[in-house]
Amino acid sequence: KDFLFYKYCKELPMLIGTGMCKTKENIFLLLVIKSLAENADRRAAVRSTWGRETVIGGRRVHRVFLLGQTQAKIRSKKLQALIQEESEVHGDIIQWAFRESFFNVTLKEYLLWKWFTEECHTVSFVFKGDDDVYVNVANIIQFLSDYNPNENLYAGDVFINTYAVRLKWSKYYIPLLMYGNKPYPPYIGGGGYLLSRQSIKLLQHAFQKIDIFPIDDAYVGMCAEAVGIKVMSHAGFRTHGQIPYDPCIYKELILVHKVLPNELYLIWSLIKHSTEKCSRIAKA
């Protein structure tokens, strides 16, 4: 119901904004993290670990969290007041006036790229991910050093020949009337991906023409296919399976999905205090 209600909403009020791109020049990499209003603990963990605003090799890195409004009716006003305070302290939250749900994540995607093209179009590259991932930002910077922001880049863990789920009990369920029996176009899933400035520009044009689809990763793949952006698989994106708490593994990767806040602090501590010499990151 929420998806159908918001499906044709191309304009929604921004409750909390940030002028970071107007006040901070020459941002090379913008870390864009999708988060629920309730997930203050995850945002705190990201800020304290891999999401720190920094300069690596002369390249400036900044972050922003994307929020909607909580579905919870109890204490929603108090939660909103806490988010407002969090924003005033950190200046890294964007929040729109729509109700959070799994099927509305695509709406957040659409609003993000609209905001980006209007306010942050000078940023070179974007990492867009979830608030339950570990990210090695230094490895992202190293990888991106070979790419031009004015050329296409859409990289991560690629899903190919994936079909719509027809099991009605699944949160990924898509009825036949909404999507046929053909596979989704190749897309990147599993917690995060990288985009160049040029790819974002093209995707924004596609978003204007292609109806919003409930599965956000598949929707980005549809839009990428429509404007001729090819997906790039990168071995450094580990989006499934168990990863041992080995600092060398985390030093070599770009992304690990499904990480709890306490695990994130542990991983960060292991990496920062490890003196082991590790092999270089796997090539894409």
Structure, described:
The protein is an alpha/beta fold and 284 residues long. It has one domain: Spore Coat Polysaccharide Biosynthesis Protein SpsA, Chain A. 35% of the residues lie in helices and 23% in strands. The chain has ten helices and twelve strands. Strands 1, 2, 3, 4, 5, 6, 8, 9 and 10 form a nine-stranded mixed β-sheet that branches. A three-stranded mixed β-sheet has the order 7-12-11, with no helix packed on it. It is globular and about 55 Å long. The protein starts with a helix and ends in an 11-residue tail after the last helix. The model has no long low-confidence stretch (mean pLDDT 90).
Label this structure with key terms:
Hexosyltransferase, Spore Coat Polysaccharide Biosynthesis Protein SpsA, Chain A, golgi apparatus, 9-stranded mixed sheet, globular, alpha/beta, transferase, 3-stranded mixed sheet, glycoprotein, 35% helix, membrane, 284 residues
List the helices and strands and how they pair.
Blueprint: H1 2-6, E1 14-16, H2 20-23, E2 27-34, H3 40-48, E3 54-56, E4 59-69, H4 76-90, E5 93-99, H5 105-119, E6 125-130, E7 133-135, H6 137-144, E8 154-159, E9 187-196, H7 197-209, H8 216-226, E10 232-233, E11 237-238, H9 247-252, E12 255-257, H10 261-273
Parallel strand pairs: 2-4, 2-6, 4-5, 8-10, 11-12
Antiparallel strand pairs: 1-5, 3-4, 6-9, 7-12, 8-9
The radius of gyration is 18 Å
CATH topology: Spore Coat Polysaccharide Biosynthesis Protein SpsA, Chain A
Global shape: globular
Portion of residues in beta strands equals 15-25%
For the largest beta-sheet, the strand count, sense and barrel status come to:
9 strands, mixed
CATH level 1 class label: Alpha Beta
Q: Whole-number average pLDDT?
A: 90
Helix content: 25-40%
Rounded to the nearest angstrom, the distance between the terminal CA atoms is 40 Å
Count of discrete domains: 1
> How many strand elements?
12
